[in-house]
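Worked problem 6 (solution included).
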Amino acid sequence: MDGNVKRVLARFDALEGELRDHEKRFWARAGELVQQAERPGVFNEALMELGAVVCTKGQPKCSSCPVADLCKARRTGKQDEIPKPARPAPRMTVHHHAVIVRRGKKILLERRPERGLWSNMWQPPTVEADRALTPRAIRKTLALPLEGMSKKRTFEHQTTHRRVVFHVYEARSKSRRGTWRALNDLSDLPMSNAHRHALELDLITI
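Solution. The predicted structure is:
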């Protein structure tokens, strides 16, 4: 049962509220209707087509609807109000602990995973968590030989589904593993605005 079918059923029975408020009702109603259909598969496709072409999300074309006379929303003049627009899902808060690791005039960079937020982009070594971590926990997770680690500041970055709290640290290291680049030699690396912002903050203290 897709969104088109749910919208048709919501208007047909004049169900107030959001579509997600009536999941059980939709399945029960669809079951009742399918049992009355001689060809359930064709009936289901017809419902989907009705929702996609006639009983649309924006302005339903009631004058072209074959069941307009039976539609309760149409009879009560609520076809444009039903269903109620869905509330946006609350943003999940995540904490990114970005450590700007220096070795001379270069900084250490790593590539993000192939999937997920900012996939395949570059960033300073970062530890992600559902809460703010202590410097000790960050060092332990990074497993890097760090010296003089200190916190610079915190800022927030909003995405469609996430509130990302960045905790920016800096440290020094003599390690040679990984990718090291000068701060003025990063233009060819794909990087999120949030991570570029973290590095721009770092430029202030050079």
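Discussion: Residues 3-75 form a domain with the Endonuclease Iii, domain 2 fold (CATH 1.10.1670.10).
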